[in-house]
Amino acid sequence: MEECYDVTIIGGGPTGMFAAFYCGLHQLKAQLIEALPQLGGQPAALYPEKRVWDVAGKAGVTGQELVDDLIAQLAVAPVDQFLGEKVTNVIKEVDGTFTIQSKQRTSSSKAVVIAMGNGAFSPRQLALAGSKELEGRQVRYFVNHKKDFKDQRVAVLGGGDAAIDMALMLEDVAKQVYLVHRRNEFRALPLTVEQLEESTVEKLTPFLPKDLVVNADQSVTLNLKKMRTDEERPLEVDKVLVNYGFTSNNAALKEWSLDLASERGQIKVDATMQTSVPGVYAIGDGATYEGKVDLIATGFGEAPTAITNLAKELYPKKKMATHSSSMKINQQ
């Protein structure tokens, strides 16, 4: 058993990374554990080149740029990092500490911060015959690099903010972008829809994909059916980009030896971000309370709330600076 950490943060997405940074600012002995082999969570894995607009002080930042900035911030007040390590159990011991178990090792911690978002995530699949075999080639679910779509004809399937964002993001590199949605109305912010109307993206509504065929030149003919009619339309493209949303779950939490109060699959927390188990805190999309808005910006506010309050619980006699201007930061 290693030396007992003050704090263990489980989850290396943006919220978990910012919480780890605050542990460093408070000079807490902390470890950050992430199941994926890299930090960044969904922004890095799902939309590295998509711009995020709800981060204060950033007039549009890509998912990867945001993660890079957070990594640089972590370097200012570093904590121990363990990547590619999935937590298999968290056990509360009789002395109030926690045992953190993974396949690689076992560690001990005085407090735990759960920053796992909504857990494991996967895209909702395109339910067309043959589409599974085309994944990663003609059929894509993510835009890891815009250059992969350069000078190509791209059909984006979906009608929400993320689908429109993808279509607009590819507008300046693709030969032509089509947005296929089963309704005439889009489930997106008014500003996003306005940008779509002013773009060169061709809207195909209300259409639903019926089937797809791979042509001899490796292009794809996507056959579309107009809703509530017999009208059909073939659409020849090079790539089909599917954005029907994502499914996620925190099934791993059910395997832990913690009896956490939850609501609709999210962990209930109080004003300090503490769960129903003393010493365990939850932040980010996986935590819920009255009035919660699921944004990265919200998680960035929850992180210092949790870390500052748990630090006061751990060291009630120690003077804790709240503002970064009052803390000892090693500036390069």
Characterise the protein shown here.
The protein has helices spanning 14-25, 41-46, 63-76, 161-170, 190-197, 251-254, 296-314, and strands at residues 5-10, 30-34, 51-52, 61-62, 80-83, 87-92, 98-102, 106-114, 120-123, 139-140, 153-157, 176-180, 202-204, 207-214, 220-226, 232-237, 239-242, 246-249, 262-263, 266-268, 280-282, 287-288. The protein has 332 residues and is α/β, with parallel strands linked by helices. It folds into 2 domains: 5-121 and 247-326, FAD/NAD(P)-binding domain; 125-244, FAD/NAD(P)-binding domain. The radius of gyration is 23 Å and the shape is elongated.
In angstroms, what separates the terminal alpha carbons? Answer: 35 Å
Question: How many H/I helical runs?
Answer: 7
What's the count of strands? Answer: 22
Give the helix proportion (percent range): 10-25%
CATH classification class of the largest domain:
Alpha Beta
Unreliable residue stretches: none
Assigned CATH architecture of the largest domain = 3-Layer(bba) Sandwich
In CATH, the topology of the largest domain is named: FAD/NAD(P)-binding domain
Using only C-alpha atoms, the radius of gyration works out to: 23 Å
**Corresponding CATH superfamily of the largest domain:** FAD/NAD(P)-binding domain
Could you spell the SSE succession in H and E letters?
A: EHEHEEHEEEEEEEHEHEEEEEEHEEEEH
